[in-house]
Specification:
Helix 2 packs across helix 3. The longest helix is centred in the middle third of the chain and has 22 residues. This protein has 204 residues and is α/β, with parallel strands linked by helices. Helix 4 links the parallel strand 10 and strand 11. The chain is built from five helices and eleven strands; from the N terminus they run ββαβββββαβαββαβα. The strands form three sheets. Strands 1-3-2-8-9-10-11 form a seven-stranded mixed β-sheet, with helices on both faces. A two-stranded antiparallel ribbon has the order 4-5. The protein has a two-stranded antiparallel sheet with strand order 6-7.
Length: 204
């Protein structure tokens, strides 16, 4: 679908009482990328999956970067606000409560930006292979917002100091952070999905 400002897919819930999932793909993914994963980790939940609007060598992303690990912070700010607007429009169009983000890599980073700049837009977030997208000048009040952070012990793209800093900043902002370092690189693993499914069960 192309309305609401983003090309996206929406899968209605088939089970009541589950928070909707906002699926945010990594670089080179699209609105179809994480749908099977969403269905696996949260069977029956509504799924909202937008496609990032930025192209990097033809690959969709949610915001620009200047180099690997170096983000265009002006673009990140604008794209985060734009995504927050999409979430509000989708909630109205589809009758959704505030979603839990499930983001991978670039998608996890913009979900972290949403948490830090748009508190209340997300009811929680599972951030897989995320780094701190920027150092916030002021901390939001995340008021026990549940956050799962899954980092790779051998991730060549996210240094240990960066994911540790993200966990610390979210915790300082009041989020209920669960940070697990898995024996993996940057890619998704079966352990990531199992841990995400277990964590999502604690939210219902």
């Amino acid at each position: 679908m192309t309305d609401l400002g983003f090309i996206h897919r929406f899968v209605p819930a088939t089970q009541e009482g589950l928070p909707p999932l906002l699926l945010l793909h990594g670089t080179g993914g699209d609105e179809n990328d994480l749908l099977p994963i969403g269905q696996q980790v949260a069977p029956g939940a509504a799924l909202l999956s937008p496609r990032g609007k930025v192209l990097e060598h033809g690959m969709p992303r949610f915001f620009r970067r200047l180099a690997e690990g170096v983000f265009d912070l002006d673009d990140l700010k604008m794209r985060t606000q734009e995504l927050a607007g999409f979430i509000a429009a989708a909630r109205a169009a589809y009758g959704l409560t505030a979603p839990v983000a499930l983001g991978f890599s670039n998608g996890a980073n913009i979900a972290a930006s949403l948490l830090l700049t748009q508190p209340g837009v997300l009811s929680g977030a599972a951030l897989i292979r995320a780094m701190l997208p920027f150092e916030p000048a002021d901390l939001p009040d995340l008021n026990d917002t549940p956050v799962l952070l899954l980092s790779g012990a051998a991730d060549p793209m996210v240094p240990a100091a960066s994911h540790a800093r993200l966990a610390a900043v979210l915790g300082e902002a009041g989020a209920a952070v669960t940070h697990t370092v898995v024996p993996a690189g940057h890619g998704l693993t079966h352990q990531d999905l199992a841990l995400t499914a277990q964590w999502l069960e604690t939210l219902t």
